């Protein structure tokens, strides 16, 4: 390849290279030729020609630093064609950290005083692009002089160069203040744009300059007024809008003419309106002006462009906390956006709709949100449950709403939804008959929703007598026989869709029905005995214990399997029967699994016999106060469920590891093997606003193996209404000193992202 080929041919040769190696070969040969010609005496326009090719090589990512001195020489050339390429090379190959940049200071100063405006323009652009603090101090007087020149083309570029100087050297702002104010009298839009940017920079960096430039507000308002009411100007018109860029840059003066007269049928007009709205919302505006801004965003929601609808809902989400009533006026339009085909628009509409829910509109809003559940993304059902908990107008409405959610998307709700609903049903004794009939019909219709099936089985076991009576006045009259109830539970036990936990609910419910029916006890005994040899250890243990109740302690079966008592709650945080932050006493695992109610007072020797169903009790034990509650006794065999003895049911206490801005994180460690352990991280939100996109990331030493399981969710409702749990499995075969660094990230309800890191140096319990 000839060293003197034109730039176009070199580009063509590089593009035709089939491999990376072939491309490098072409560039290396051309760079070698350029180096050789740089050392030769200039012949014709070869210098600019070679530097142009070198700049293209630099754009491809290859080294081109050997052309820096050639840029310095070409900037000093009297030819405009060489100056242009030289200044372009300086902007691309030089920066303020390199000593070579100081060599062009004198050349730039000379060119700033050149008689040709285009040479002056090259020097201004270069100084604005890569001028160091030293260069800015040396050349600032020259820039101030050019700001007062008569040429609008030069004043425009000098203003932008002054902006760079102010950013580099704050002290030089006072030098440009008088000239900046005088630029507002110019008619050229480019000069006005540069002047407004320069004034903005001066005000941001000097409070005294801010007070001085407040006097220019009438000038800026007059400029804005001229832009809005002026006629057609082909030089500045963009889709029928007169210079929208200049309108946006000075819209902070909140002139209402922008908001009322701008054409909102075109993208350019919507851009100007959107910037105006952001300005009104960011500054301390009067209430009427903020309402106008919200109404403009409401009009955006009716736009056919999904991008405009998206940014409108994003902006409304930021202000819904401060301007709630103004946003409420557009509730109908926001709810309609839930039907949009675009997933991102639906997600924003859902977040905004949930933020608009209040005690006064909970019924209307939840009706729309429940219709949305059939097509909503995973996780939205959880938020609907949290909202219904917070603003439920009555207990029956609360139960109906959660059951609707479980019926529609029971597989996507959090694990704590089942015990929370069981607690709610237990505490509303007047709705027991209504709830058990409704859940029984739901169980007959669909057994594919695990959460719904578990609650239904629990209710049938607890309130089976109310189901069989059929005297519920709040539902349609229906007669349920003993065989019907047992058939429903047996269907759950035999279904391939039932998890072991769900089968445990169904087996316990079947056992409890043995004290609520009279004619099918033998059938129940047969069903329970089948699972005495089940492969699942949990089901097998339950079946063995229940068979022992039938054989040896049948006289105590009715007392052991009576109804669960009302679950007590803490005195703080009540909201329609729920606590705001899981303040209710947690339902113990045994209680959720329906192992039994409180035992009646029995002689100590009878209780010891009952606990020692398989024998082996050598010393008297204290009687347990409740079946399956782990706080009864810590002695082996002290828990009624621990019929085999030796099981530790004392729960591990969580250890707080992080608490900041209302977000807290606790840790529970459990050793699973000699080198393995499980770490459970639980996050909660005690602030008054919801948190979304909550994620946890963990890092450990290289020799430790880490596996993070799927979290329970990514949404933390306000005031601790629910928690997010993340399980981390660790394997430390080398027994190194274990440390873990956790990154916490989430988005606030205002749309801002937050990230923080915490390091854990010790793991309690290991």
Secondary-structure map:
Elements: H1 7-15, H2 20-38, H3 46-59, H4 68-75, H5 80-93, H6 105-112, H7 117-130, H8 133-147, H9 152-168, H10 173-182, H11 189-205, H12 207-213, H13 217-229, E1 237-238, E2 241-242, H14 244-249, H15 256-261, H16 267-282, H17 287-300, H18 306-319, H19 324-328, H20 331-336, H21 343-356, H22 362-372, H23 380-391, H24 395-409, H25 417-427, H26 432-445, H27 450-462, H28 464-469, H29 482-494, H30 500-513, H31 521-530, H32 537-552, H33 557-560, E3 574-575, E4 578-579, H34 589-592, H35 604-611, E5 655-660, E6 663-671, E7 676-685, E8 691-699, E9 705-708, E10 724-731, E11 740-748, E12 753-760
Antiparallel strand pairs: 1-2, 3-4, 5-6, 6-7, 7-10, 8-11, 9-10, 11-12
Protein architecture, described:
By secondary structure, this protein is an alpha+beta fold. The chain is built from 35 helices and twelve strands. Strands 5-6-7-10-9 form a five-stranded antiparallel sheet, with no helix packed on it. A three-stranded antiparallel sheet has the order 8-11-12, with no helix packed on it. Strands 1-2 form a two-stranded antiparallel sheet. The longest helix is centred in the first third of the chain and has 19 residues, at 20-38. The protein is elongated. 37% of the residues are buried. The model is unreliable at 253-258 and 570-649 (pLDDT under 50).
């Amino acid at each position: 390849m000839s060293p003197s080929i034109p730039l176009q041919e070199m580009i063509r040769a590089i593009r035709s290279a089939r491999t990376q190696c072939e491309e490098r070969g072409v560039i290396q040969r051309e760079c070698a030729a350029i180096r050789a010609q740089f050392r030769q005496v200039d012949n014709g326009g070869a210098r600019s020609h070679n530097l142009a090719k070198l700049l293209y090589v630099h754009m491809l990512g290859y080294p081109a630093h050997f052309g820096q001195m050639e840029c310095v020489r070409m900037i000093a050339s009297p030819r405009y064609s060489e100056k242009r390429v030289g200044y372009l090379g300086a902007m691309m190959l030089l920066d303020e950290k390199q000593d070579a940049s100081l060599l062009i200071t004198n050349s730039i100063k000379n060119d700033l005083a050149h008689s040709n405006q285009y040479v002056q323009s090259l020097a201004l652009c270069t100084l604005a692009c890569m001028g160091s603090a030293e260069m800015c101090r040396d050349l600032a007087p020259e820039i101030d002089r050019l700001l007062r020149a008569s040429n609008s083309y030069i004043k425009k570029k000098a203003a932008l160069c002054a902006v760079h100087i102010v950013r580099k050297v704050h002290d030089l702002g006072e030098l440009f203040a008088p000239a900046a104010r005088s630029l507002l009298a110019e008619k050229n839009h480019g000069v006005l744009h540069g002047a407004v940017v320069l004034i903005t920079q001066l005000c941001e960096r000097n409070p005294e300059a801010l007070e001085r430039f407040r006097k220019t507000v009438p000038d800026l308002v007059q400029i804005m007024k001229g832009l809005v009411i002026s006629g057609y100007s082909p030089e500045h018109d963009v889709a029928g809008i007169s210079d929208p860029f200049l309108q946006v840059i000075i819209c902070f003066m909140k002139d209402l003419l922008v908001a009322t007269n701008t054409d909102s049928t075109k993208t350019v007009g919507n851009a100007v309106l959107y910037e105006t709205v952001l300005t009104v919302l960011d500054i301390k505006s009067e209430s009427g002006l903020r309402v106008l801004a919200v109404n403009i965003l409401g009009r955006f929601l009716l736009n056919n462009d999904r991008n405009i609808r998206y940014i409108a809902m994003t902006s409304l989400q930021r202000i819904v906390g401060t301007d709630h009533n103004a946003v409420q006026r557009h509730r109908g339009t926001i709810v309609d956006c839930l039907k949009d085909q675009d997933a991102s628009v639906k997600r924003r509409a859902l977040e905004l709709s949930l933020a608009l829910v209040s005690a006064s509109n909970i019924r209307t809003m939840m009706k729309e949100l429940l219709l949305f559940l059939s097509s909503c993304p995973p996780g939205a059902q959880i938020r609907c449950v949290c909202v219904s908990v917070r603003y439920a107008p009555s207990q029956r409405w609360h139960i109906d709403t959660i059951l609707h959610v479980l019926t529609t998307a029971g597989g996507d709700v959090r694990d704590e939804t089942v015990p929370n609903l069981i607690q709610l049903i237990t505490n509303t004794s007047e709705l027991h008959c209504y709830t058990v009939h409704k859940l029984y019909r739901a169980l007959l219709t669909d057994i594919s929703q695990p959460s719904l099936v578990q609650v239904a089985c629990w209710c049938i076991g607890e309130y089976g007598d109310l189901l069989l009576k059929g005297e519920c006045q709040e539902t349609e009259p229906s007669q349920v026989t003993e065989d019907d109830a047992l058939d429903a539970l047996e269907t759950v036990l035999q279904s391939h869709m039932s998890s072991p936990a769900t089968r445990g609910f169904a087996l316990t419910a079947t056992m409890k029905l043995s004290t609520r029916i009279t004619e099918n006890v033998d059938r129940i005994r047969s069903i329970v005995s089948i699972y005495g040899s089940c492969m699942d250890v949990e089901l097998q243990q339950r079946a063995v214990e229940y068979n022992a109740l039938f054989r040896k302690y049948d006289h105590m079966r009715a007392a052991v399997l009576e109804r669960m008592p009302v679950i007590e709650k803490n005195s703080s945080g009540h909201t329609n029967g729920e606590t705001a932050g899981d303040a209710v006493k947690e339902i113990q695992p045994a209680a959720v699994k329906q192992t039994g109610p409180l035992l009646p007072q029995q002689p100590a020797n009878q209780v010891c016999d009952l606990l020692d169903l398989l024998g082996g009790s050598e010393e008297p034990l204290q009687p347990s106060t409740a079946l399956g509650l782990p706080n009864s006794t810590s002695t082996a065999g002290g828990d009624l469920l621990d019929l085999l003895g030796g099981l530790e049911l004392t729960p591990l206490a969580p250890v707080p590891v992080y608490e900041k801005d209302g977000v807290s994180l606790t840790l529970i460690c459990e050793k699973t093997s000699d080198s393995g352990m499980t770490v459970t991280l639980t996050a909660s939100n005690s602030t008054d606003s919801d948190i979304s996109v909550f994620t946890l990331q963990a890092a450990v030493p290289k020799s430790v193996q880490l596996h993070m399981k799927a979290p329970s969710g990514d949404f933390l409702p306000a005031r601790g209404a629910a928690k997010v749990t993340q399980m981390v499995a660790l394997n430390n075969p080398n027994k190194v000193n274990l440390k873990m660094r956790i990154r916490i990230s989430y988005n606030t309800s205002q749309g801002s992202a937050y990230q923080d890191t915490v390091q854990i140096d010790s793991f309690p319990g290991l």
